[in-house]
TrEMBL record:
Residues 146-263 form the Thiolase C-terminal domain. InterPro entries: Thiolase-like (IPR016039), Thiolase_C_2 (IPR055140), Thiolase_CS (IPR020613). NCBIfam families: PRK08256.1 (NF006102). This is propanoyl-CoA C-acyltransferase. One of its GO terms (biological process) is lipid transport. The keyword Transport applies. Its EC number is 2.3.1.176. The keyword Transport applies. It is an enzyme of class 2 (transferase).
Length: 318
């Protein structure tokens, strides 16, 4: 449409003014350059970013809903095909097919229909759009949403009375490994510039302070665009209910969700069980979370499609 302004014109302008424009796809350029700025400013290393890709692929091994369920070595992540600058294919999310659904109910509805053992409460939810600071100072980190994420998280903490240390499990928008690391700082999990040290300590996985993207995140679970936000919500609900199978975060009581779209908005949400006593005293029937998806009728159809694709792979499949 000739008379409409592209919603990411300002974003691209900030990037071009700092690092120029390459023939690579725009999204990995934006987030890759944000990672490059982080390295220049704080001394973050290529390995810090690669460890995030490695971690998310490792997490997805136990997620039957994940697009990719293969574990890679750190070296494989670092030496896989380059997409832009330091970002390799195993540090970038795919564009996925997928669907997710959630039911939003009043407390009265929950009690009337005996749903207290399953009810997850939204403690706080905040949306923040592009801010003037997103385009000031020629910062790619700010341009890709750092200030939006920071402000949305601040509002959620203020509204709920919680702090980052109260959170157990997090699903955040890891479209690229660089954005996951930058978002650690925006959410207040560590001071600005210390995301690399958080990675080194292992505070983003099982045994650390938080388990971040136990689903495998967008990088490995997949990025079904319009369904991505609800997919994050579903994953966190499973953990709060104790339904996440092999990837269950032990004792998860508080969850944080972070989702972002360039051009531009961020949504941060905090969740907990609405009736924790009821949840503890009732057996909840878990969703299928074994390592197999054979229980789904649709899986038989997909297996047939997969076989036919393999038969003609040399013609149709790259």
């Amino acid at each position: 449409i000739q008379n409409k302004v592209n919603p990411i014109d300002k974003h691209v302008e900030v990037m071009v003014n700092k690092y120029g424009l390459s023939p690579s796809p725009v999204a990995p350029q934006m987030f890759g350059n944000a990672g490059k700025e982080h390295m220049e400013k704080y001394g973050t290393t290529l390995e810090h970013f690669a460890k995030i890709g490695w971690k998310n692929h490792k997490h997805s091994v136990n997620n039957p809903y994940s697009q990719f369920q293969k574990e890679y070595s750190l070296d494989e992540v670092m030496t896989s095909r380059k997409i832009f600058d330091f970002l390799t294919v195993l540090q970038c999310c795919p564009t996925s097919d997928g669907a997710a659904a959630a039911i939003l109910a009043s407390e009265a509805f929950v009690q009337k229909h005996n749903l207290k053992p399953k009810a997850v409460e939204i403690l706080a939810q905040e949306m923040v759009t592009d801010m003037p600071s997103s385009f000031e100072g020629k910062s790619i980190i700010k341009m890709v949403g750092f200030d939006m994420s920071k402000e949305a998280a601040r509002r959620c903490y203020e509204k709920s009375g919680l702090r980052p240390s109260d959170i157990d499990v997090i699903e955040l928008h890891d479209c690229f490994s660089a954005n996951e690391l930058i978002t650690y700082e925006a959410l207040g999990l560590c001071p600005e510039g210390q995301g690399g040290k958080l990675v080194e300590r292992g505070d983003n996985t099982y045994g650390g302070k938080w388990v971040i993207n136990p689903s495998g995140g967008l990088i490995s679970k997949g990025h079904p665009l319009g369904a991505t936000g609800l997919a994050q919500c579903v994953e966190l609900c499973w953990h709060l209910r104790g339904e996440a199978g092999k990837r269950q975060v032990p004792g998860a009581k508080v969850a944080l969700q972070h989702n972002i779209g360039i051009g531009g908005a961020v949504v941060v949400t905090l969740y907990k069980m609405g009736f924790p006593e009821a949840a503890r005293t009732h057996q909840i029937e878990a969703a299928p979370t074994s390592s197999s998806v054979d229980g789904f009728k649709a899986n038989l159809v997909f297996k047939d499609i997969e076989k036919k694709l393999e038969d003609v792979s040399t013609i149709y499949v790259k």
